Amino acid sequence: MILTVTPNPSLDRTYEVPALERGEVLRATGERMDPGGKGVNLSRAVAAAGHDTRAVVPLGGAPGALVAELLAEQGIDVVPVPLSGHTRSNIAIAEPDGTLTKINAPGPDLTPRESEAILATVGEHAPAADWVACCGSLPRGLIPAWYADLVTRAHGHGSRVALDTSGPSLLAALRGRPDVVKPNAEELAEAVGRPLATVGDAVKAAEELRTAGAGTVLASLGADGQLLVSAEGVWYGTATVTAVRSNVGAGDASLAGFLAAGGEGPEALASAVAHGAAAVQLPGSQMPTPAHLDPAAVTVTADVPLDRALTE
């Protein structure tokens, strides 16, 4: 069972439009409403793949109630932590060429009592989990070290921990020694404080995160594939994608595929790449099912193209 923790969940509305034109009245050709947030998306992807998952989510107001309802409809065991504030609502506008414009609300301001309630709730459910996945940005009221506390507590319950966050929260959490961290190329560059021009640069940056405390680094490089850097070795994975429809939640789907396949080694990387490739070809933040996966389109190799330029 994979337990997810999403400190700043959302209610996400995605509209598909022929083109984004400022100042004009746009008529959507398609729309979706989904529960959002990295951990929420990960739970949705795990459930879509047929595995057990439980989602710890701080929720408040009518948007929060709708998030819980939508998650339950997808077969996810929801563990709500009541908030005095309202869960945020986000908007995404998707164009036919794959361009996505997102408007993300800041979210509620959590009180110290609500912060501790989330940590306590994770502690109650972590012993039953194979993985605890801590995902997304922190809402107002939570300091960057909050994730470090969460990682340490989860480890204390015997759980392996995957972390998908960025900036000061990622750097602070490394001292808790998370088993897996999953940055994208931009987040990886931010973490090491320099631009990454090649796949080799990304490998070096990932090794620096491992030195700082990460057990394994699963790095999403967008259209340039994915990297897995661990004590056992370095692998590089790519997939053939026919057309990009929306990249919302693609990284979350990748992490779900990785953890569901065991969370280590080239086989898990292949699963991550397959899930991510399937996700970008689906509308909005729809998560792929096994029927959407195309393992034959995935290539994983230990012969990493270090000189390959990163395009994103």
Q: Secondary-structure map with pairings?
A:
Elements: E1 2-5, E2 10-16, E3 30-36, H1 38-48, E4 53-59, H2 61-73, E5 77-82, E6 88-94, E7 100-103, H3 112-125, E8 131-135, H4 146-156, E9 160-164, H5 167-173, E10 180-181, H6 185-192, H7 199-212, E11 216-220, E12 226-230, E13 233-239, H8 250-260, H9 265-280, E14 298-301
Parallel strand pairs: 1-4, 1-8, 2-6, 4-5, 8-9, 9-10, 10-11
Antiparallel strand pairs: 2-3, 6-7, 11-12, 12-13, 13-14
Helix pairs in contact: 1-8, 4-5, 6-7, 8-9
Keywords: ATP-binding, Kinase, Nucleotide-binding, Transferase
EC number: 2.7.1.56
Protein name: 1-phosphofructokinase
Describe the structure.
- By secondary structure, the chain is α/β, with parallel strands linked by helices.
- Helix content is 34%, strand content 24%.
- It has one domain (2-19, 28-301): UDP-N-acetylmuramoyl-L-alanine:D-glutamate ligase (3-Layer(aba) Sandwich), CATH 3.40.1190.20.
- The chain has helices spanning 38-48, 61-73, 112-125, 146-156, 167-173, 185-192, 199-212, 250-260, 265-280, and strands at residues 2-5, 10-16, 30-36, 53-59, 77-82, 88-94, 100-103, 131-135, 160-164, 180-181, 216-220, 226-230, 233-239, 298-301.
- A ten-stranded mixed β-sheet has the order 5-4-1-8-9-10-11-12-13-14, sandwiched between helices. A four-stranded mixed β-sheet has the order 3-2-6-7.
- Strand 11 (216-220) and strand 12 (226-230) form a beta hairpin.
- The longest helix is centred in the C-terminal third of the chain and has 16 residues, at 265-280.
